[in-house]
Amino acid sequence: MRSLTKPNPEFTYDAAVQIAALIAHRDRVHADPADSRQIPDVGQAGHVLIATWNIANFGQHKRRDIDIAVIAEIISWFEIIAIQEVADNLIDFEKLMAVLPNHFSYIFNDKAGNGERAAYVFDTRRVRLGAKMGEVGVVESDRDNITFDDGDGLPNVAFQGYNRNPLLCSFEIENHRLLMANCHLLYGPQDTAQNRALSLKQRQLEAYAISRWCDLRRKSKNAWTKNIMAVGDFNLPHANDGDPIFEALLDRGLRLPQHETRIPTNVSDSHDYDQIAVTPGLVQQTVDTGVFDFDAVVFGEIWDANATSYWRTCAKYYVSDHRPLWMLLKF
Hints:
By secondary structure, the chain is an alpha+beta fold. It contains seven helices and eleven strands. The strands form two sheets. The chain has a six-stranded mixed sheet, with helices on one face. This is Endonuclease/exonuclease/phosphatase domain-containing protein.
C-alpha cells in the first residue's frame, strides 16, 4: 500500500467541532434535493441501511485518535458498512472498533493484492452474520469464460483471477437474507499508455467476473439467497454508457441505482469509483441512495478557495480520498 502525502505542517483540530459540522451537513434540508445529504435513520423496521467506503490506506499511515473519531462518527450512521483498503496492520482498525459503540461487530479477510484486506462492520442490534461467507474466486478451469469485448479497443488478454478476491459475507435482518461481495478492483500500473490499457482491460475482466458470479448465484437452484449485491471500489471511471468498466459490470444484470446527490465518490470530484451494484430483484427494493461528501465541511478553518492543496491533503490523509456511498434497502 502506498501512503498518501502527509500534511506539512501537521493540522490538529477539535474532533467534536468536526463531528458537529458533519452532523449539521448530513441533516440540513435544501430546496434542491441534489444539495441535501440527508441519510435515513437506522432501525427502520423492514429496512437496512448499507454503506461502502474506501478508507484510504487504513492502517498504512497512522491516523491519530481525533482522525479515528471522525471516521467512526460517519460509520456509526449505518447498519452494514463494507470497507476497503484495510491494511495488514490492524491497529487503526482495532482503534476504530474500540471507538464505535459496543453494539458494532466486524469481520475481515487476509491481505491480498497491494497488501490490502477488506472488512465489514455491522450493527448487531439489527444485523447478524449469516451462515455463508468466504471469498469470490474463479478457478483456473473457469477462467476461459471470463471474456468481455464490446468493441472498445482494449487489449485482448487472459483473465488471471482477481488481484483481491471480493470478500463474501451474508447477513440476516429480520429473517431476511442478504449476500454481499466487498470488491476492490485492480487499478494497475499507469506509467505508460500500454500499461494503462492493460490495467483497464484487467479491471474490465474483474468487473465482468463479479457480474457473472452474481448472475450465476442468483439463478442457481442452490442459492442461499437471491438478494445479492456487489459493493465497493470498482475503480469505475464514469457510471455511464460507453465506460468499459460500467459496461462490463452491468453485462450480466447488475444494476446501479442512481443517487440524488449526483456527485462523484472521490474527493477530487472526478470519478464514480465506488458503487453499490444490486441484482435485478433488489432494484425495486432500493428506497434511497446517496453519497456523503464529508469534505464539504471538514476542516473549514483551513479552507482557502484560492489555494486548496493543503486543505485537500489534510482531508485525504486524515479521513479519506473517497466518500462513503449508502443505500436504504427494504425487504
